[in-house]
Amino acid sequence: MRSRWIPLTILSLAAIGLMAAFISLSVGEHKEEDFAIEGAGEVQQLIGGIPQLGDRLGSDEAPVTIDVFNDVQCTRCADYQLEVIDPLINDYVRTGEAQLIFRHYPLGGKPVTLGGVAAEAAGEQDRQWQYIEVFVRNLDQVPEQGVSQEFLNEIAAAVPKLDTAAWEQANLDPDAEEAARAGNDLGTQLKITADPAVVVTGANGSEELDGAPSLEEIEAAIDRVG
Hints:
9 helices, alpha+beta
């Protein structure tokens, strides 16, 4: 008589394999990344109380305008933001001597980045600079596969007084991508090199400083054009 053990064994093994595959897929689909976003308090101390509108930080009546061309998703660019741009915020923007305009200028070959779009979305609530500053302080937490939506959400949640529901809608709006892309278009037009750069403009003219200019070089330019 034909044995029933073989087909039953095969069916059992198949069922076990199918269940294992299902569990594996489920774990992969629902795996969450753990982030510990830091620096929000420090950012608020740096920026809090300074007038802000969209891309601009500082009074629109400031005699000097500094256009900052930088990439929030670039590690060395993040260091540049912290080491060079932040002192300008404290010493020149807060005092009313200058205003800063952030231009998203990706250095990885793409005209726009997810971080740039998310920052522009925060700019709809005049919180773009807070978003940028929190973002660069936590760039070391970006997963190996790149910036994820969950990371962008966590940054948004850490930005003081940001309506995250409104930010989520703005982040999906094509206007945010268009605004981020405009920085790349302007940088390309000005032939900005593949490094952070600034353009300092005042009553006595305008100076373009390429190649990640130092704080001292920018301050000297402010004195010349102001």
